[in-house]
Write a structure and sequence with these properties.
287 residues; alpha+beta; seven-stranded antiparallel β-sheet; 13 strands; 16% helix; globular
Length: 287
């Protein structure tokens, strides 16, 4: 149980009626630009492998993809989750916005969902075009796969909760080192660009009684993959989480961990693919 004070305020006479009010969806998405079936189909045809990046256990690596290419993140040796960052290849200030993606598509993403970029750009950076774990759905605990809830494991929280034990293979540190190496940046500068992640293959949810974020052993197995269509030119960073399948621990050398493979393909859509346009809002903010 979380460390919370006992409730001090008795429920009012109409408390039950207030709680019984039906919820409404915050962002009705009927007008949200949907990913056409023709695009999903085109992203699955005429695949030609152009690049591969092997991400070692408890490490991170960067990769690049042009607009219209397909990024496949693949489990190859054993159950393993990965923490994904993506940036505009030409402007690191435009990066994945997990919070808005969560608000628009839900706590977990699958085929047809899009990964949206930070304000003021707010455009699809990548779209999910294939998901071999889409069979999993939502389990009896409320768990599902590929979450946009978790923030990434980091050494600051680890230090806070462990009382000072510094662990340098947290996904935040892994991604920092990988971006610094890829872009030739000082570590302190690279760290400013690390952001909340898509937890690829991770199975998570919220407990029904306390509302706490939980993880459970991922259903991922060798051969499973998540395919993303790059909607703009992308720089990606993927960390093979030190939690392995995140069934019991993370940020630990005690858990069995495995590599992940990133493959970048041309597809039937790649030639002449037009990047997603930036958001049309004029940025005047009423001034």
């Amino acid at each position: 149980m979380p460390n919370r004070r006992p409730k001090e305020t008795p429920p009012p006479a109409d408390g039950a009626a207030r709680a019984a009010i039906a919820p409404v969806i915050c962002y009705p998405v009927a007008t949200l630009p949907a990913l056409p079936e023709a695009v999903i189909d085109g992203a699955r045809r005429a695949l030609v492998l152009r690049d591969t990046v092997l991400v070692p256990p408890r490490q991170a690596r960067c990769f690049r993809a042009r607009a219209g290419q397909v990024i496949r993140i693949r489990c190859i040796d054993g159950p393993q989750v990965g923490d994904l960052n993506i940036w505009n290849l030409h402007d690191l200030s435009e990066r994945f916005f997990s919070g808005k993606t969560r608000a628009l598509h839900g706590t977990h993403v699958t085929t047809g969902d899009r990964l949206w970029s930070s304000l003021p750009h707010l455009r699809p950076m990548a779209s999910v075009v294939a998901d071999s774990l889409d069979w999993y759905g939502i389990d009896a605990y409320g768990g599902a796969v590929h979450d946009v809830i978790g923030t990434r494991c980091d050494p600051y929280t680890h230090c806070l909760l462990s009382g000072g034990d510094h662990y340098h293979h947290c996904c935040h540190s892994n991604l920092t080192r990988a971006l610094a190496a890829e872009m030739g940046l000082p570590v302190a500068e690279a760290e400013r660009h690390i952001h909340d992640v898509l937890n690829v293959f991770m199975c998570t949810g919220f407990t029904r009684d306390t509302g706490q974020y939980f993880m459970k052993a991922s259903p991922v197995r060798p051969g499973d993959h998540l395919d993303l269509l790059a909607e703009i030119d992308l720089l990606g960073g993927l960390s093979a989480c030190p939690g392995g399948d995140c069934g019991s621990l993370h940020s630990s050398d005690l858990v069995q961990c495995f590599p992940l493979l990133v493959e970048v393909f041309d597809c039937a859509l790649t030639p002449g693919y037009q990047p997603a346009p930036a958001n049309r809002y004029d940025r005047s903010h009423g001034v």
